[in-house]
Amino acid sequence: MVNVILLGPPGAGKGTQAKRLVDERGMVQLSTGDMLRQARSSGTEMGRRVAHVMDRGELVTDDIVIGLIEEKLTHAEGAGFIFDGFPRTLPQADALGRLLDKVGQRLDAVIEMQVDDAALVARISGRVTCGVCGAVYHDQTHPTRQPGVCDACGSTDLRRRADDNEASLRQRLMEYYKKTSPLIGYYYAKGQLTTVDGLAAVEVVAEAVRRVLDKG
Ligand code: AP5
Question: What is the CB neighbour count within 10 angstroms for residue 110?
């Protein structure tokens, strides 16, 4: 059982790699972004509150996302957890440590995926996601085999995210540099950080991720 954090700016490829680990190893992907998008589409009061924050590219409050992770950690089972988009602030990182202790688990690795800003803009502006199974595509670099049809599940519900526009992406990047990038030093100091080149091809990044997990 291996628990890992995938850390990186918007568009670094965290979701893409997390889904591969789910398929290859039966790990459980805990994506706070996906959980928040589910909450907003369910029409709950919490969903309405977070929708505006997400569309502006700002971070949702720590209490909300820590609560979401706590709920999943205590109920999900699998061959380890992949934390995708969580933690994003130092208080979230501290909370994750406490939650893992509480459920008798430990963090095995933190993988920082490094990608420069220009590549992120190109990736985000071409991203398409399957609304049914969550498979991730890109208009230019990873199109579906049949236009408009998900390769993985055959659904035609292919979507672009509301926050995948230039203004929101700029804000998301600023939030990353201000509030999330300090986590690189936090986990480096704990001896848990490995950095991989997120600019490499998907399969090359996947191999680098595998190496880290198999070492841990
Ligand atoms: P979230 O959903 O976590 O979005 P994000 O961090 O901005 O990350 P993305 O999902 O945009 O990118 P990714 O790294 O997963 O890239 P992907 O694999 O899709 O968060 C959204 C919002 O929710 C936040 O802004 C915030 O408001 C809120 N939120 C979430 N968590 C929170 C928290 N913990 N605290 C507070 N607020 C929170 O890839 C992108 C594209 O690139 C795809 O098209 C893909 O095909 C392509 N691609 C991937 N890898 C490669 C590669 N190696 N080469 C070429 N193309 C590639």
Answer: 24
